[in-house]
Each structure stands twice: as structure tokens, then as C-alpha cells.
Amino acid sequence: MVISRVSSAMLLGLGCLLAAPTQALAVQETMATPTVDADVRTLNNGNLVLDNIPPIPARIGEQLNRFQNVRSASFRNFTADGDAIYISTRFGDVAQIHKVSEAGGYRQQLTFFDEPVGGLARKPESNTMIFSMDAGGNEFSQLFLLDPDSGDYHMISDGESRNGAVVWSQDGAKIAYQSTRRDGRSNDIWVMDPQQPEQAQLALAAPDGSWWGPVDWHPDGDTLLVVQYTSITDVKIHQLDLQEGELTLLEGSDVGSNANFPLGYRKDGKGYFFTTDQFSDFTQLAFRNTDTGEVRVITKDINWNVDNFALSDDGKQAAFTINEEGMSQLYRLDPMSFKVTRVKGLPIGVVGGLTFNPAGDQLALSINTPKSPTDVYLLDSENSLKRWTFSEVGGLNTDNFVEPELVRFSSFDGLEVPAFVYKPKSEGPHPVIISIHGGPESQYRPYFSSTVQLWLQELGAAVIAPNVRGSAGYGKEYVSLDNGFNREDSVKDIGALLDWIATQPDLDADRVAVIGGSYGGYMVLASAVHYSDRLQAAVDIVGISNFVTFLTNTESYRRDLRRAEYGDERDPEMRAHLEAISPSNQVDKIDVPMFVVQGENDPRVPVTEAEQIVAALKAKNKPVWYMNALNEGHGYRKKENRDIYEQATVLFFEQHLLPE
């Protein structure tokens, strides 16, 4: 059983609703094809449209080449016999599924698609698996049944709806999954025999605009553990009786708000594990005994969020990680006695992909550190760690990579805001790139980033990644500080960061740029509105330019989820507030060169958000570059597009940030 903070059942469901876009790297530009507009040209067989972006010098492609040829490997599952593993990695343009049969062994590619493969769920006691895949980044993922031994596969979903969060029953006879199949809007739960997909049945018609998904099957085979996500601070756990259709609320209530994420049933069927902030400002690991109703808070003495959990097939072993200042700490857990033991000696970094092998004596981990990309490790019962994959890093000497320093700066109201600061090894004062994460219910964590290291080494720029108010990882109070009418308080945190930069002798407060994606893109635009006089460049990636048009045009299956965070635009008072703070209505205040990056098929932040801010800037004769990928969605997943985006970003910074 593989379970993360929002559980494996939510793998391509909720994760796709909230995640920030990828800001990975790139290789070199192809020859431009002229179009009717002299300022517009296309690349990559017409799929990448560049508007007002100068030709990218060949030297930049050569300069960035090594940084743009970094790979990673993420754990997906064990084979049925536990002797090999399935991973996802990229050898072509997008990530595909591979099999690795021994530590450091050959990566045998199993899928060969033009689109990246999404979630993967293996049938119990079989190598048959279900994977998900969308088209052109539209996030309307379809489900496919794959025999990895023969390579045969076929679609089992309807080809139109959005599907994910696949959970196999313990006997492998059926799956529960999330789908918008009923009306294209509601996040319902369905049950299917994958051998008879035409007989899929609606198990739960979602009663409102929240996200509903299956998490685990009860040992009785007739009951599902279900999550209902309304917002990051309002998550409920239900139990669904598939025979009677009866839905029972287990955790959470309509009065008050707390986050309860189901993790899975204990194998004796007498309770379930879950994470909750009912009893703390942080998300704690807990177990509820369904016979007595008693809740046991397992991590009551750990004041950090629990963010990963795994339970072995036989129910005798469990493991979890906590997020401590953005870094992961791994613990083992006895599921019956609840004894907790910290695992020492792991690389300092971010851990994910926790999964026990079928025998329960090996624990798979995906480990990422500031100096190494994600790779797969196996931890045995004696806590001896063995590395199974060795991803290429483009010939770079990662020993020379800069590790970040964690700092805190005081904002306008005295709030202490954490930020990770990367500084070049050369003498300053250095120009500064402020990188703002999306979400907003996300968190910058010090992952391996060849992008950051490229900016440090090739541009000589320092990079600062703040976790402004509204970020996850610092408790439920902190994550709620930017909601509704407090939206611009997070923008003021950027103003306070600019103040802090001015106090640092090795940072150049006169040469500062901002970059961010999704909600981070809004933060970039808002920072340009309020702090243009203190900025030299701004890069908005799939960003929100107007909250009202965004909420009106974002896909219907996620609209209510976003209203819970940003406010309901149908309320006149809130609508007036959202219009007042929207950057598209304040273009007159923007006086900094802007680079806008978008994917045509983005279901979260529609292309119209980019088009309207670009048009408004052009109408006011403001300098703006615009890049739109016609075969991408919420961020660029195809390497050929990421390559040119990264090269253009370097050129943009060279022209607008670096000059003294």
C-alpha cells in the first residue's frame, strides 16, 4: 500500500487540482518559422508560439546544455514477486514507465507514448497495472490496463471524462476510482471490474463541488474509506457501504474546520490510520479504533506535519515521514503497538514514494537532495539503505552545487516568514531572483534543482524561495493567513522580503527579479503592480491575472475548490474585492519588463488569463514577451518546450536583470 499525505488514492485526482507547474530545464532552439506577424514565430513543429521574444543566441543553448540534460527516477511500485521495481524516468521527451531488476541495473522501458504517463496502480499479486495519461496537458486523464510483460494495453475509461485515484480491491477483482463521467463536473466515485469496463457503476454521486476520492478498501471487500476535500483546512473522512450505498461521516464536521486525510484501514479491520489537525496546529498521524471510537494520536510529540505513510501488505509494518522545515525525517511504526522509531542515517533531503515490498521486508523510498535528483533506494529491515537507480546529471559535478540557507524575515505585521536562500560562491553583491511557489497551499522545499544551480553558476544570481503566508508546512493557522479578503497580505510578504534584501551587503537590491507559476504567477503580477520601482524583471508562468475571470473559466470540476481559497466571485462584496486586487485591472501600475509563459490546454489557469494580461500590457506599450505552447497545459512537461522556455528565461534575465 502506497499512501502519501493525500494518499495514493488521490494520485492523479487532487494532486492535479492543486500542484504548481513544472519549472524544469531545456536544451536548444530549432530554426524559427516566420509567421504573418513579424514579432511572432513558431518552434517545435508549430507547437510553441513566441511573441516579441528575440532570437535566442546559440551560445545560450550550448551554455545550458548540461543543466538541461538532468534526469530523475521516481519509484512507482514493486513487481508482484518483489524482485524488481517499476519507476518513471525520461529518456526521450517525456517520462515513461521503466522496470529495474537489480540495484544499479538496466532501466527497461515499458511504455512509449508521446505524453507522460501519470498515476500507476498494480493489481495485487499480479504485474498487471492501471496507468493514467492525458492529452496535451489537458488533465482529462484516461485509465489504461497494461500487461507489462507483453506490453499490451487498452483504455478502460470512457475517453472523455477526467479519471484517476485508482485503488484495487484486495482480491484484485475490481477497482474504485474518481471520475467526472456522470456530468463532466462532479468528482464522483465509481467502481469497475477492469475486465468489464463497460459495466462500471457509479458508487457515490458527489453531493457538492468538493473533491471526493477512494483511499482504501476495507478487508470485508464491501466498504470504502473515502476522502472529501473542500479546502486545505477542511477535509473530511467518510466510509461508503457499497452494498447499501450508505455514506457515514467518520472525521470532520460541518461546524468548524479541520483537515483529516485518510490513509488506510488496519489489516484487522478494526480501525483506520489518518492524519489530522484536530488536536494540533500541525497535521498529526492518528489511529481510530472503530470498535471503541478511541483516537490514538501517534505523533503528538512531533510538532511538524506528517506527509507520507505506508503500510505493508500483511499489516505488520508501517512507515511515515514528517516535514521538518521542508526536509524529511523517516520513522518506522508498529501498527499494533504504535511504537515509533526514528530511522537515522538517511541522506538529508525530501523523501517520497514510501512503499513496502510484498514480503514486507523492504521499504522503497524516492529520495531527493539539494545535490542529487530524485532516485530510488530500498531500506531493509535492519535499516540498511541501498541505492537502486543512478540518474544522469548531464556531466555536472553536483558536489559544486550550492545548498540553501534557511532564513526568516519579518513581514509588515511582525509575522516571521521562512525562505530558502541560495548564494553564488563568487563575491557579491549579487543580482537576486525571487522564486515564488504556486498553490497557494504548497511549500517550497529544497529539492534538487538544476534550474536554480544554472542561475547561480551561469547568471551569478542569488535565488530566494520564500514560503509566504498561505504556504503549507507551518501549521493550519499559517496556511489560512491569506484567505479571502487577506489575499494581498501575501504580496506584502514579498515587499518585506525586498526590504530584507536591502539589508544584505552581498545582495544587490537594485537588481531583483521575480518568477513564479500558477498562484505564484499571480504573485509575480501583483508584485509588479506594487513594487515595479524595486524590480528589474518579472516572469509569470501560467499565472492568474484576474480572479473573477479565472474563477469563471477554470474547469468546472475544480471551481468550488478554488472558491474556498480565493473567495466566491458570485458574492458582490467579494467580487468587488477580487476585481480590485486583480493585476489585469492595474496594468497602469506595472512598470517592469514582463515575460508571460502559458500552455494552451491549461484546465486550471486558462490561456485567457495570459492572453488578457499580455493584451493589456501591449495596449499600454509595456514591454512583454509571450510564450504559448499549444501542446501543453499547466506547465511544460515536454522537454523540447521546457528547453526553449529555459533558454528564453536566461535571455530575459540577461537583458533585464544582469546589467548594472
From TrEMBL:
GO biological process, any: proteolysis
InterPro entries recorded: 6-blade_b-propeller_TolB-like (IPR011042), AB_hydrolase_fold (IPR029058), Peptidase_S9_cat (IPR001375), WD40 (IPR011659)
UniProt keyword terms in alphabetical order: Hydrolase, Protease, Serine protease, Signal
Gene3D superfamilies: alpha/beta hydrolase (3.40.50.1820), TolB, C-terminal domain (2.120.10.30)
Span of domain Peptidase S9 prolyl oligopeptidase catalytic: 447-657
Domain of life: Bacteria
Record bears the keyword Transmembrane helix: no
This protein's record includes keyword Hydrolase: yes
Annotated signal peptide: 1-26
Listed PROSITE patterns: PROKAR_LIPOPROTEIN
One annotated GO molecular function: serine-type endopeptidase activity
Listed Pfam families: PD40, Peptidase_S9
Protein name as it appears in the record: S9 family peptidase
Source species: Pseudidiomarina insulisalsae
